[in-house]
Amino acid sequence: MKFKLNTQLSYDVKAPSTFILNIHAMRTAAQTVLEETFTIEPYYKIEELIQVQNENRYVRFEVPGRAQLNINYSALVDTSFIIREAAELYDVPVAHMHPSVLPYLSPSRYCQSDKLFRFAHGRFGKYKTAFERVLALSNWIHDNVEYLSGSTDSQTSAYDTATEQAGVCRDFAHLGIALCRALDIPARYFTGYSYQLNPSDFHACFEAFLGNEWVIFDATKLAPINGMVKIATGRDAADTAIATIFGNVMGTYMSASCELVEDKFEPLYYVKNNIFGFTYL
Q: Where do the domains of the chain lie, and which CATH numbers do they carry?
């Protein structure tokens, strides 16, 4: 499926500053960037970076002094996904996991899985398979955590969300990750563009390692899984920030959109005719 992406960011730069932006669509076997443009007004020389440990794409640039900065990113991206039957999403013992997966078993800044160990095992330990546990905890988050804009901030953790039972997509994702890790299931943060998300914005969800693949879950259920375009993955939101800025800068505007470039689209969520969806390679 082809999607047209657009991001606009504006900043009031008050002193010499360095920007690291993470808004480019990821290039993977299942996601091809057919076209893209990135512009900065006024113009500054940029450096493109790709993390060694994953495929996240960054641009870095310096602004030498005061400026009104306008950034635009647009892209045409072709995505594909694999629909898996639940039986294919088998448990993977820790002893057989690839070394690249192991960091996603440990607590991280926003996903204190150690603090949620007793809750996770008491609530979800009764399920026989890892897939059943992830599906159950994702549904529990959706049913018990209120999606409430403005209820959290950049310091809110998964433990806070479990306690207060309110948050936004970022918090839903962090709680899902922390509960998975508490159950010895590797999980990582997913940020991207999302078709049919209302209002249009960047979106966060999480991926669990099942059947030797990363499988996407969205506990908010606010947008179809097959309408996602991946920007980045990481241990939590600290690894996948849209903008990391060093200097005296004030954000003045942000928008992100994802539009379908094809006539036909069947939104898919999770279980449909006993089939479970969505592995983005």
A: 2-79+244-259 (2.60.40.2250), 82-239+270-279 (3.10.620.30)
